[in-house]
Amino acid sequence: MDGVLESVAVCAVALVLDRWLGEPRRWHPVVGFGQLAGWIEHQVNRSRPAGIGRGVLAVLALVVPVTLALWLLVGMLSPAFLLVLEVLTLWLALSLRGLAEHGLAVARPLAGHRLDEARTQVARIVSRDAAALDERGVAAAATESMLENGADAVFASLFWFLVAGVPGVVLHRMINTLDAMWGYRTPRFCRFGRCAARLDDAMNWVPARLTALTYACLGNTRRAWRCWRTQAPLWDSPNAGPVMAAGAGALGVRLGGPAPYATGIKDRPWLGSGAEPEAGTIRDAIRLVHLGVGLWLAALVVLVGAREVLW
Hints:
Blueprint: H1 3-21, H2 29-44, H3 52-76, H4 79-93, H5 96-111, H6 115-122, H7 135-182, H8 194-218, H9 221-231, H10 240-251, E1 254-256, E2 259-261, E3 264-266, E4 270-272, H11 279-310
Antiparallel strand pairs: 1-4, 2-3
Helix pairs in contact: 1-4, 1-11, 2-3, 2-7, 3-7, 4-7, 5-6, 5-7, 5-11, 6-7, 7-8, 7-10, 7-11, 8-9, 8-10, 8-11, 9-10
């Protein structure tokens, strides 16, 4: 089978598995990796906050053996077994159904004005102080999470699989997990987690901009591009800024702004323009991610067709 056509088939089957089965409830390898990473961090960053060097060594100790082992394994497997490995790996890396489930768990009670229930659900997917959020704040937090995690957990996984196969998608998932666990600007993690945070920024740079472009193409393109160009540079994350600014512009809503955290109110820049977010906005963001996945698959099919015609 042609390499590009095979990649399209693997992506399609993995997405079908994600749609039918969702994420495994038990024995998920990402959960196991996170537990191992937590144990290692506890060992080397326990008595006092460790420096950058220990953070680098911890990252290398976790990701290099796995990536190298997968690279060797891919070279040893027969085409049939490799195809199975690719499908299963990409299915486990994707979280399209999980993204929608978490978003809808917030949108449904919010639409029924059950604010306490909506706060409980949004606290599962964002780090801000959910108890201090009003309905607009809950809707904004969940919408931002849908847009950003669409980039991290869906489009970046597809991108790294297409670029570097099984080792690439697993390496990205490991780095992204380490950043989620260690990439905080707190006394404990400011130096120790810097390597994981910088690697995550590097690996997500291209996928984030492709995601922002995808959102812009599927919504209000002119507004999305304007918000991306003018607002994203003000955001503290080099990748979340373009994704959420373009997504907010595409949806025609205003996100960002001051948000409550355990440490106090964080004065964030505004993103997007237009209406204030509500329960329906969360659904719109989920739909935007799903349409984006369809657009990527269609683009891959067109690429395969163009190769057949030209070559």
